[in-house]
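Hi everyone, sorry if this is the wrong subforum. Our group has a chain we'd like a structural model of before ordering constructs, and none of us has done structure prediction before. Sequence below.
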Amino acid sequence: MVCDDREPAQSVLTGQIFAVRFQEKAGDAQGMRTVQRCWIRYGLALGAPMLWLAPGMSVAASAATVSGVVRDTRGVAQMGAMVEVLAASGSVGTAFTDMVGRYRIVNLLPGRYQVRATAALFMPATRGNLRLSTEMRATVNLTLSMLSDTAMWLPAERRRSDEPGDDWTWTLRSAANRPILRMMGDGEVVLASQDAREGPHGAAIQARASMMSGDGGFGGGGAHGVVALVRAGNDGSDGMMRADVAAAGMAYGQAPATELDAGYERRGMLAGGSRLVVSYASHPEMMTSGGAGGETMGMQTMRMASAEKMQLGDAVDVEAGGTVYMIHTAGAAALTAQPFVSVTVHPGEVWAVRYRLATSRDLQGFDDLDSIAAEIPVAAQCGVRLCTESGSHQEIALSRRAGGGLLQAAVYHDAIGRSSIAGTGAMSAAELAGGGGSSGVVIDTATGSFRSLGAGTTTNGVSLTLSEPLTSSLWAALEFASGTALRTGSEPGPAGLQPASAETATIAMKGRVPRTGTELRAAYRWQPRHLVTAVVPYEAFSDQAFLSFYLRQAVSWGDRLPAGLEATIDGTNLLAEGYQPFLSADGRTLFLAQSPRTIQGGLSYTF
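Answer:
Right subforum, don't worry. Here is the predicted structure as tokens:
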């Protein structure tokens, strides 16, 4: 900013004229403070400081201020984002966010403005129709969305209720925390942005202990104690270990069910990264057919899951990886591999085209490893060999951003070799042995539920998704899809299921409730009640038909309770809809259900 270089004697004007001239010079909000210092310097040189200082003080007192925090859609503060205050004539103020995503723009004249935040690889975020009055202090928090974030409104897999925080918060989540290097005028390279968790004293370590109880469904019944340890390194790497020990098996004279998970992430080139998770699970409460008319207790699984992602400029995002399962039960073992690949092309700022190939419902993308806990695979004796659920999903989706929302249309092809069919009821050994011929059955003796492997289906379908933000942290979405599922037929039980064309619709909400801090995920997924499998098994919430919800709430009571205490409740199909009864071989009434009712709750403490 260049000060007025006229002679001080020529600058001696009335206070009113001075104020007008000062406002004209203060058109650039970022240079206003510099101009004020120049006029004060002339006033002092003339020996009349009060004449020149008083008008400037009146303008500063009447000016407004805009401040706030810039985050991404997952709540991670963004460093180095540019925030502009825009009037009809253009930009009147600019600031960059600091290490924790905060910004502040001062000395704004009363009027109507827009506030816009921009950052590399993010869609611009705008708050319109902001009215500033005299001496107003406005708070405007903005949320940036990644260009590659084409389906942010729902998770792509079933989240576990006992995971730490918002499941596993990786350093590279949506590449939001990557460092930004700037070249200064003198050639010096400085770090303009870094992870907010990084510090000069080494890696951050966080521990979390949880106690969950309730009807957790297949493989998750009874009380569970979970301990998780997360280590976030200064080099951008993350590591996590998790142990889950259940007490449900003790009532059956068995060892308790145990799950052990370990995961690691490191940063990669091209704004990408890689993740690796290794898991071991032992479930002695599981009972399967031994293949010779007898039953066998126990199932052990080992899993190795990996995912890689990279960004080729702003135009192409690539994700690839997969899961390898080693399953042992009923005196037999099986090894299965389930790869995935996803390629997203951005022809413009609002359009995106994606191709996706998935062979597992649990792991279909990089973000699915936010949770390192895995669901129990369905594996049972089929004749003389061990069978597992199998299938593939191919999809082409076109999406367009409209304002802060998203509209997506997709066509897909599913080829499912064996479908997983869920059921409840006390199945006897006779029924278990009867199911070992053509379709394997595995029973969870702790919860009285079972899984069966049924016939496969092949289908083509379409899906339409519309999502809109209700607030800066809460989203709502509608989804409609068509496809093929299995329904009950003339013959009772899993053996009589037949494929049928059907439609499904979902209404969902996800995010944090303003002013309460409550983390919410709720959905009602409707489909015809006579169906016992999902219409679109590879879509989000496909395993949560009908009314389901998840709540996480921080618990506080002044100084009486320690900080870091949270309560969680997780329920699926709360109205118990879609149950299909049938008689077993010994005359017992059993039920098939696309999504059996489960409810689980507990407390967790982070320290």
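For your construct planning: Residues 1-59, 150-157, 164-202 have pLDDT under 50 and may be disordered. Helices lie at 15-25, 32-46, 49-62, 429-434.
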